[in-house]
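Structure (tokenized):
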């Protein structure tokens, strides 16, 4: 998808069955940005614990710090400077899995930072982790977030560099909150999943129009949209509860009266079943 570099970031974190058997260790890794650095394509997997992803503020291409259970996992740091392929994280050593008997056993932590100026395709599978991703300031090209059985927050606290082609959010039996999506400038945002809840907040600085495609079975989605945005809702629905105050009914769906004239436009395609969709206007 990008020129030469494919980077894969693989992380699996579990909890030991008892505190007596759990041996925790911290591992760190980093690498400087090289001249002519190609883009990164990173896949992040995290089973349980706490994970933070953010833009770095130094000269490093990537930086990793993980606190992990040595009885179940071993750290990975593999990088091929010729191809730019990157593997980071933890590898199961044969006794992986999660069985929690104490809250302390979830005290597994990972922190990852990426160089802001390097184009990045990021896919994150969060499992049952408690995840906070602030992707503001990154040169984000594409994004994919998959949540499992807990809450994940994705924020763009400041505008990204360049523009994002697509962001895909897959929601399980959990809650996903995406904040200041306008700062990501993604042309397409997809929301997919089952019995979960997704909140998409389109605050921030608009640099182009955005299309949302929602396919939620037995889930709910809330769209927080700045007033003055032109909004159009289309698509197939089955037993879907719609709360779209401020939009007028037309032949194909609903739209704001000034949709065609609006400086910033948000198009929403619904491919939903047994889901609730709310549009909330914010100042």
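Design, position by position:
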């Amino acid at each position: 998808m990008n020129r030469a570099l494919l980077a894969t970031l693989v992380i699996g974190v579990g909890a030991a069955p008892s505190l007596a058997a759990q041996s925790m260790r911290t591992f760190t890794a980093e690498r400087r940005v090289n001249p002519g650095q190609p883009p990164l394509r990173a896949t992040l997997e995290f089973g349980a614990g706490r994970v933070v992803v953010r833009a770095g503020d130094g000269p490093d291409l990537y930086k990793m710090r993980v606190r992990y259970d040595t009885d179940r996992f071993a750290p990975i740091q593999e990088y091929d400077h010729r191809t730019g392929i990157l593997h980071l994280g933890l590898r199961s050593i044969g006794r992986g899995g999660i069985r929690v008997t104490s809250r302390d056993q979830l005290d597994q932590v990972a922190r990852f930072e990426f160089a802001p100026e390097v184009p990045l395709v990021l896919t994150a599978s969060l499992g049952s982790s408690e995840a906070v991703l602030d992707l503001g300031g990154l040169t984000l090209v594409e994004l994919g977030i998959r949540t499992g059985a807990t809450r994940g927050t994705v924020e763009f606290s400041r505008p990204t560099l360049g523009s994002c082609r697509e962001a895909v959010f897959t929601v399980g039996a959990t809650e996903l909150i995406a904040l200041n999506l306008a700062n990501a400038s993604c042309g397409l945002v997809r929301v997919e999943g089952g019995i979960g809840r997704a909140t998409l907040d389109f605050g921030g600085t608009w640099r182009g129009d955005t299309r949302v495609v929602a396919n939620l079975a037995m889930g709910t989605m809330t769209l927080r949209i700045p007033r003055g945005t032109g909004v159009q809702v289309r698509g197939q629905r089955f037993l879907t509860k719609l709360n779209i105050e401020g939009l007028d009914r037309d032949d194909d769906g609903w739209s704001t009266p000034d949709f065609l004239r609006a400086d910033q436009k948000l198009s929403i395609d619904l491919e939903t079943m047994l889901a609730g969709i709310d549009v909330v206007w914010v100042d």
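Reviewer-requested clarification: Confidence is low (pLDDT under 50) at residues 1-21, 96-105. Residues 1-121 form one domain.
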